[in-house]
């Protein structure tokens, strides 16, 4: 697909995802209105909607055609968002801006930032559970939810977050710890996105395992690219100051391995991910292009 | 049942619950070890194990005999615990002690307090999902999980927490808001406990609705009793300073209605709850005594 056509197709798909998200977000009313506002503010603050998009496209790759995937698409974006809201808190990264907008706690206060994050994580499960009434296969929905929960939790994203927080206090971060952080903090939720899509579409266990490996490659490459962009990007493009990792003395793949070696690794991982996708046959052209564009993005 | 016999029976049951909790808690290892330690520290800090106990006894009342309830019992205690961990954070109630022990963030730091809470909430869902492999009825497990998630979330406990946080900034708290707070912050999780027990045991929809009402009464009465004890209790008995609500200028049912009126309402609610339980027939004697002892506790 030509770059321009791909961009148009992508925009159309992301608009579709925005619609799905809005459908599942809570109405802002009642005595708990403020937390609902803070949740919606956080989710609607923008973002690439990468995880729901990857889920939807993987679902389609394996022949999925139903609405059962939609609650899960909304759910994974809620989980991703809550992790950012809590990550931005004063006791964590203490960020006042994200994507050029005030962070949730900066607008609603710290207590509401904590509660909005909790609310989104819990609401993600409430939302995903709605898929159970959209399917005849309770078993597949339960397996998908189990993967989503595992990849979001202490053996997934939260585990990576923990190792990351602790790495900030260390003089030296080993490559082993760094890869653990990337595999869990970043790759785990990308794995959840693609695996849930595959499981809901009825992919075989062995296929889901290959999807997991592909998503690992995508996640690690995406994170290394993020670290590369932290060095080479600009405030204008990213909405955050250049080199914030270096400013915070945060060790990354780039600070350990250097820019050149990092770029090579991104390249290797992206080729491996593309090969796995090719191996599935089916109409995976858009998904492959998406994966490659994410990995090789310039901002 | 005689008071002494009841206490012995209760102790035996709570020991059983401790065993179930330990079975489902994570092993403390890996790069994310600290968050796992903080989670276990939080859950094993003690507590009455009221919610799992109510779940188990309601399950039994409706004839449940399997292990499917156990993951849910562990899950609801994890949810209760995470809510305390986040509630104790400096940006929330800023408590350094709970039940006479240092709170999680006081021991592990604020970032780890946030992550341990997130970890426990997520792990609660991971744990409850294990019930799906313990049952032939995927549908009942999904309904039970849906109730648990709803009662824990922004239309349940987190909603009540939000209204409570905001009430602290108000000159006057209306009785309507106060009852919303009690119904959601406290009663919702007790409702979840008893409803999940009933659903997993195969109770009919109309029975589950009566259980929900009974649990509402128990929850409201429990909370009013808590507010009464805040005034009349002592540091020794409660492990926290006397009258912390008054100290924090927090308005409660007691500060609005007075001690006498509050005690009367506790009495009315406890009789209503007992009547509902009597209406189910079956062996609900222990559950009734439990409910009444909780409501009318002296510490």
How are the SSEs ordered, and which strands pair?
Two copies of one chain form a homodimer.
Chain A: H1 3-24, H2 33-43, H3 50-61, H4 69-87, E1 97-98, E2 101-102, H5 104-108, H6 110-129, H7 138-152, H8 157-167, H9 175-200, H10 205-232, H11 235-238, H12 244-247, H13 253-257, H14 259-279, H15 285-295
Antiparallel strand pairs in A: 1-2
Distance between the termini of chain A: 21 Å
- Taking all residues together, what is the mean pLDDT of chain A? 93
Strand order of the largest sheet of chain A: 1-2
Low-confidence stretches of chain A: none
As a percent range, the share of strand residues of chain A is under 5%
Largest sheet of chain A: 2 strands, antiparallel
| Oligomer description | homodimer
Largest interface (CB within 8 Å) is between: A-B, 55 and 55 residues
Q: Using only CA atoms, what is the Rg of chain A?
A: 19 Å
Give the helix level of chain A as a range of percent: over 70%
- DSSP, total strands of chain A: 2
CATH superfamily of chain A: Farnesyl Diphosphate Synthase
Name the shape of chain A in a single word.
Answer: globular
> How many domain modules of chain A?
1
CATH architecture of chain A: Orthogonal Bundle
Identify the CATH class of chain A: Mainly Alpha
Structural class of chain A, please? mainly alpha
Q: What is the CATH topology assignment of chain A? A: Farnesyl Diphosphate Synthase
Number of helices of chain A: 15
Written as H for each helix and E for each strand, in order along the chain, the element string of chain A is HHHHEEHHHHHHHHHHH
